[in-house]
Amino acid sequence: MKQHVGEVANMDALVFEFMGLAMIALCLIVLAVPSGRRPSGRVRHH
Hints:
Blueprint: H1 2-37, H2 42-45
């Protein structure tokens, strides 16, 4: 039982770390796409 609980806690930690990295990557993509890859957008419309 104790080993199973430890494995679950380990998985939760990995999922939490993965979610953190995913959010950081998403923020970087959101910041990078409008300025570089898609010049035709709100910036050009204004």
